[in-house]
User: Fold these one by one.
Assistant:
Number 1:
Amino acid sequence: DTAVSQTPKYLVTQMGNDKSIKCEQNLGHDTMYWYKQDSKKFLKIMFSYNNKELIINETVPNRFSPKSPDKAHLNLHINSLELGDSAVYFCASSPSISGNTIYFGEGSWLTVV
Amino acid sequence: AQSVSQHNHHVILSEAASLELGCNYSYGGTVNLFWYVQYPGQHLQLLLKYFSGDPLVKGIKGFEAEFIKSKFSFNLRKPSVQWSDTAEYFCAASGAGTASKLTFGTGTRLQVML
């Protein structure tokens, strides 16, 4: 069983489109995250939710909107996609917000053309 | 500002060679430290972590890391690498007891030659 699963794994889309990436964790964790890995493999946090509440929002454009319907799910919606949004997006979770180990999903490869 | 530095960007070794990847961090307060590995086309997997206690931490696949507080370092080591260790290695840090926000280093690409 995949602990942190995200869909789709691969997504190719045109500039200007709106797309969503879904994430679910079956670990019973309270905290979920979205990380972005750029073409140079640099990883940076985008958002963090704890029990469905936003707790970390790094300097991410408003076009990115996370939604957490319950603590096991954290979806990422992206409006008006731009070429620079091409990256690998990793969902992750941890038992709580206080410095626990973070477990990553398999990543969603987004290519904007 | 919190930061993690990995000075080796690309390391090439022959099988059976010993490995040491450098990691330095800059953090205010108590810090948790991690090493993650990303095999080609795959997700990040936790190799090992340090929260407190024995500064020499043993992880999976024969890897270990040593926390040296005076040097702000958490270097990753393996006595004898294998071809299957070819991957990208990321050092990361987070503040202990605070909102979890992993700060990653820029990664080290390890290539092991047969």
Number 2:
Amino acid sequence: DTAVSQTPKYLVTQMGNDKSIKCEQNLGHDTMYWYKQDSKKFLKIMFSYNNKELIINETVPNRFSPKSPDKAHLNLHINSLELGDSAVYFCASGPAATNEKLFFGSGTQLSVL
Amino acid sequence: GENVEQHPSTLSVQEGDSAVIKCTYSDSASNYFPWYKQELGKGPQLIIDIRSNVGEKKDQRIAVTLNKTAKHFSLHITETQPEDSAVYFCAATVNTGGFKTIFGAGTRLFVKA
């Protein structure tokens, strides 16, 4: 049973399109995150949510809109995709808002053509 | 804001040898320092962590040391095995009105059989 699952695993799309990535965790954690990993493997926080409330928004363009319908789900919607959005996006969850002991999903590789 | 530097970017060792990865951080308020291992096509996985009130922690072949004064922390892997080959990330967590984990740039470890 996968602890943090995200779909799809691969996403190939044209510039200007809108796409969504879904994430679910079955660990009972209160906090969920979106991270972006670029082609050089650099990992950067985008958003964190604690119990459905936005805690961190790391100056991400407002084309990116996270939504947390409940504390087990955190989806990411991206409008008007740009070439520079190509990256691997990781969802993660943790037991508390202190960012400790994060569990990551297996990633969604987004390619914008 | 917090900045985490990690060295080396690539490390190649012979099976059975030790591997050491070093990180420095800039914000003295950081108090939690995790290490994550990322295998190809997977999300990062927590392998060990240390809090700022502890100088050293060991878990089987893996150990982490922390020097708060110098703002350095290191990962030590002894008796390396081919399955240790992966990208390793250090990170530091700081509370800036919401906890944030800043990752180092990663070290690609190759263990040659």
